Amino acid sequence: QFFFDSSSSDSADDNKSSGCMLSLKTTVGSERFSLEQDLDTTQPTTSRSRPLVKGAELIFDPPLRLGNVAPTLLHFPDLFEDRALPKLRRMRVVGIVIEFLSSLWFLLEKILWAIERRCQVHLSKVNATPTYRSSVDGAHWRLHMAFTGHLQLFGWVPVPFISLTLPSFIIPHPHALLEYLISRQPLASARIKRENISEERITVAALDAVESWSATVKAVATPPALEMDMTMPGGITLSFEVMHGRDVQRNHPLHPPTMVTGMPRTKSNDSLKSPTDSFQRRANFSSGRVSPTTVLPANIFNSNSLTPWYFEVSVDGSLRNDKLVFNVNRCLGRQNDVRTSSMSALSLSGSAIVSRAKAGATAPGHRRTPSRTLITRPLPAVTALEVPPPSVHALLMFPETIGQSGPSNNHLLEYDYVFDVGEETNIDAVSLSYGASHPMLKGGTIVSCILESMYAYGTIASREGSVLDPSEALRKRNILKHLPAVDFTAGIQNAFVERNSLSYIDDGHTRSIPEMEGGRFMFRIVGGLDDSMLAKPDPSIVKEGIKFISNFGVSSFAMNSETCVNEFPELDIFEDSKLISTITGTFDGSVTCHLRPQNIRESTSSSAPNVFNPLEAYELDFSGSSVSLRLKEATFNLDHRRVIVPTETTFGVRVNRSIVNMMFEGTTHAVIAWDFQGSSPVLQVSKVGYNPVRVSHEDRAQVHLLIKDLCQGRLCLDVSSVGGLKFKEAATLREDRDGLYNWKFFNSIVSPDEDSPARILDVMHDKKTMHKLLAVVKLVNEDLERALKYILTKVWRAKEIFDQEGISDPGMVIPGYRMARLASLFLCGDLSQVDDILPIIQRVNDGDGLDVLRAKDLLRKHIEAYDEWAAELDRAVKWAALMLGGVSIQQPIEAFETPPLCECLDESVYEGIPTARQLYQIIQDKPKLPLAKSLSSLVSRLSPYMTLQQVSYVLHLRPCSHWQPFDLKRLRYVYSIKKKVDEIKESYGGLSFMPQSFFVSIFLGEATRSSLRAASARNDCEAETRTLPRHCPHHYRVRLLFPH
Q1: What CA–CA distance (Å, rounded) separates 225 from 250?
Q2: Angular region, 379: left φ>0, alpha ψ -120 to 50, beta rest
Q3: Are 81 and 89 in contact (CB under 8 A)?
Q4: 750 to 132, 747, 763: CA distances (angstroms)
Q5: Of the candidates 342, 265, 347, 339, which has an alpha carbon nearest to the alpha carbon of residue 301?
Q6: Which of 113, 114, 123, 112 shows the shortest CA–CA distance to 152?
Q7: Using CB atoms within 10 A of its CB, is residue 986 exposed (0-12), middle (13-18) or buried (19+)?
Q8: What is the tens place of the pLDDT at every residue in 965-990?
Q9: Are 559 and 583 in contact, with CB atoms under 8 Å apart?
Q10: Which pTM does this prediction carry?
């Protein structure tokens, strides 16, 4: 034990408050630099040495009286192992002396205790100076400790000591280099035995001794480059690197980054390497020879090239058993880069109070404005307890251990905070790089961009009556309970991709080079406010929940892509054909997301939502979001074909209403609009082997792809909770909005219904549209155009025959004679073949199948191109014969015994698990009384193995008050999961459910996460007896590349 008495020995008045003021002054900087040079931001980073503690002075005023100093120094070496001690133990004489002293240890401690009673130590100052000394591990900078004070003999005779030093095997010397001093082994002359140190108790005891504190820091620092690698479950490796400044252009081999001697740059095998060490990269990209292992380098950013930041921080606070106060009076940072004439600044201020919660405090109360000052809340009187409650700072720092002891009602904390980010806060530029690769896939991705003129300002504060339980797990559902009152704005005024940054996107099939200029982004977070809290009304503010508002746009972007196309000789697409596309334009948009509590009330029904679970009680509102795209140029080249999109073509999406819960269950109503500016995309075709771009207009043919009715339009799209798409209405340039190409036309393609075939036939009968289609198909392939023209001619002829015969319903052609009459008119234009066709129809009606020979004779006689399409027509007749042929009656299946696929389980395995009938009978017994805890727990544990109908039946047998709260929550969750599965089962597949995979992934992720959480709880119980394998779905690695 080591304790100190904080009472002043010089104070004779016992009524005065006892205490001692500690003043610590530390200087950390570069070797051979003065203090002015250390704080001079014009000094380049490369001229500085590694940070070194150049001096430290700790002053006690009045001198601090220490107790049991000498006995403590005897036991102090048990906490560390001197690095020179093993070598000395090998010396025989030293070993004998150590063994002799060890045998007299108990007697020596008694003697020192006796001396301690007559000799009191008063410490007034501690000095630490760096020295360069060699040791068994090599030469190191270490801090030499010197103590100043006095001894008070017999309580009244002072004996001063000045700059007293103790041997390193009694008080070891710490490291002087900052990077070693903040490590897990901060001692230079010894190794700490962390297993013998109770870090939590020492930290809590040290904080309990502090009543108030203040600190002022002046520092010059260069922000490090942040590097993060993530290995996803599918094997893909993502890499992100961020650094303050503009350093992307230095990736080029002509400007290699400055490497710092001795700074490690090694990475794991999952890290990404860069292809930028080759001047032939763009040539390789064009020829498709980009290496599949292309990844980001470890030294893509060089922090040493930056001008350091100057920081000035002033903070203070107080610590009491029931209250913690923290004030940031000033936090200023600035950077002035003379080379680039850029300036960056940071400003932060605020306060925070954490105190023990009032009696009966369980949930946050009403909201307040973040602009008001903090108010110290009165605390209830502490009742007499056998075990005093832990202090506030102990609960915050060690909730897992300290928070588990004592009454749980003393662990609730009430907090209040407000922090302001000044309007002068801005960052001149940030370099960002993103990379992706997969070990089993070709290609890779590297995109580097620069974000300029970043700004931020606003206020964030707690809401009135905010209560915290430190023992709660850090989960998404618990974080939602502590939403702050906030009005914060941040943005980027300019974002661009450097032309020489060599950014590219390659997925093994498509290779693209992105370009961007004039990007902007702004987001605002508001919540917990109302009009009465502001000087003037603001329509964007909300009181409930938090609202995210973002505006973004790009003034100019370009995407040059090259896609490999499979060989298709019939369409003149041969091997090594590539689709080359060029897209330039602008886009902008606004996304609004309001996270708020759902408008639901607590229900007595057992199948109601869990209103106390934030994941089910909160919802997301995306209403009002919109995105628009304007194309300046868009061309697509495939060998001798080219498609040109009209200039100033626009596409837009606006979300009128979209409200979903945290599992994205809900509906979305959006509007999709397009406008080709009165023109149509053009298809140009030249001779095979020639590029339409390089031939004259006489040598190429072209045609418009769209009719005028489809050159402008608007669709209203509904997305269901299971990802189903359905169009409700549409508008085009046609004067008749309910014409041929209204919303029913698009709905018949995406989400067909019973009226869709009729709508498709109406389109096929529209000769204006079909002639446009034939003209387009002719440029693609003439043989295909002839076949399509022949089919359309026959379809139009069939419609004319039906109109002449007055047939408007399929049921009107069922009589055999009328069917033969229609077939004769269709084949030869008269009724001469009715007698030949009628027997064929009667044979099919009698169940004898299709007469293939007679059917082929009819087709050969009346189809001119029969010989040219003989194989196809023969295949079609055989398919019709198979479809119209008779079906044999299935013979009864003979049953016979088969061995089981697995060993039958013993009945003892199912002991204690009731059948469904037994479960219903037990639940229905005594319907007026609540269920027993054991039965309620059993039903909740068995619920995943029940069907949806069984879980629904069990929930409706009893009201919610008859279940245990945790079991009811689990039953409701299982019911919602099974209900979602049933909805997906009933609505699955097809074009109308294209986005369904996204909704299913969220559903599976939430269900799997709950299962893993349950498995983790079981694994925690078994952790003491066995070691779990290191299998995890994600692997993260974060590294900070600090400057030299």
Answers
A1: 14
A2: beta
A3: no
A4: 77, 5, 15
A5: 265
A6: 123
A7: exposed
A8: 888 888 888 888 888 788 777 776 66
A9: yes
A10: 0.75
